[in-house]
Design brief:
With about 220 residues, this protein is an all-alpha fold. It has two domains: about 50 residues, Homeodomain-like (Arc Repressor Mutant, subunit A, Orthogonal Bundle); about 140 residues, Orthogonal Bundle (Tetracycline Repressor, domain 2). The chain is about 75% helix and about 0% strand. The chain is built from ten helices and no strands. Helix 1 crosses helix 2, helix 5 packs parallel to helix 8 and helix 9 packs antiparallel against helix 10. The longest helix is centred in the first third of the chain and has 29 residues. It is globular and about 55 Å long.
Length: about 220
C-alpha cells in the first residue's frame, strides 16, 4: 500500500471521527447527554450505528472526546521536562501554559458543556475514571524516570499529590465556568490558584524527579 493512500485513509478516519464527535456534542448540548441515543448520533452524522461504536466504544467518550490528552498530559509533561527541571516544575509550567491557551483539556469548555457534564451522573463517573487513569499514568512515568523499584511507593505518592493538584484546579475551572465567568477571569483566578497549589507541594517535591543535565 502506498504512503499517499495510507495518508488519505487516515485523514478520512480522522474526519469521520470528528464529524461523529461534532454531531454528538451538538445533540448532547441541545437535549442533555442522557437523553440522546447512539442511534440518534449515528443518524445525525450520516453513518451506521456500528461506525459510531467503532470510533467510540462507550457513549461517554462521545462527550469526553479529549480523553487521551487528559489522561496522558501530565505524564508527557514529566517525560519531556528540561534538564535540571523537576517533575513539579514541569507540571507547573505546562499547566500555566494550558491556562494561558484556555485549553479545553483542563476545563475551559464553556458553560453549556460544563452543565452537560455536571448534569450527568454517568459523565461525572467517567470523568472520575479519567482522573484515576491520569494519576496512574503519571505514577508510571515517575517510576521510570526515577528508577524506582516495583514496591517503591514514592512515585505513587508523588503522583497522587501532583494529580490531586491538577484535579482541584480542573474542578475550580469547572466551578467558575458554571458561574458564568469569562475565560479571561477564570484564567487569572486559576493561575493564582496554581501558584498556591504548587507552592504548597514545593517543600516535598521540589527536588523530586529532577532530570539530570545532558552529559557534554
Amino acid at each position: 500500500m502506498s504512503t499517499p493512500t495510507t495518508g488519505l485513509r487516515e485523514q478520512k478516519k480522522k474526519q469521520t471521527r470528528r464529524t461523529i464527535s461534532d454531531h454528538a456534542t451538538r445533540l448532547f448540548l441541545e437535549r442533555g447527554f442522557d437523553r440522546v441515543t447512539i442511534a440518534e448520533v449515528a443518524a445525525a452524522a450520516g453513518v451506521a450505528k456500528m461506525t459510531v461504536t467503532n470510533y467510540f466504544p462507550r457513549k461517554e467518550d462521545l462527550a469526553l472526546d479529549l480523553h487521551e490528552e487528559f489522561v496522558t498530559g501530565p505524564a508527557r509533561a514529566v517525560a519531556g521536562r528540561a534538564p535540571g527541571e523537576s517533575a513539579l516544575a514541569a507540571l507547573h509550567r505546562t499547566l500555566l501554559d494550558s491556562v494561558r491557551r484556555h485549553d479545553p483539556v483542563i476545563g475551559f469548555s464553556g458553560p453549556g458543556f460544563a452543565r452537560m457534564v455536571t448534569d450527568s451522573p454517568v459523565l461525572l463517573a467517567r470523568l472520575r475514571e479519567f482522573h484515576e487513569q491520569r494519576e496512574a499514568a503519571l505514577a508510571a512515568v515517575l517510576a521510570e524516570e526515577t528508577g524506582a523499584g516495583p514496591h517503591d511507593v514514592r512515585p505513587r505518592v508523588a503522583a497522587a499529590q501532583l494529580a490531586g493538584a491538577h484535579r482541584v484546579l480542573f474542578d475550580e475551572t469547572l466551578r467558575r465556568t458554571l458561574e458564568g465567568q469569562d475565560d479571561e477571569r477564570i484564567a487569572a483566578a486559576v493561575t493564582d490558584a496554581a501558584h498556591a497549589a504548587f507552592a504548597l507541594l514545593e517543600p516535598a517535591l521540589g527536588d523530586y524527579a529532577v532530570r539530570r543535565p545532558e552529559p557534554h
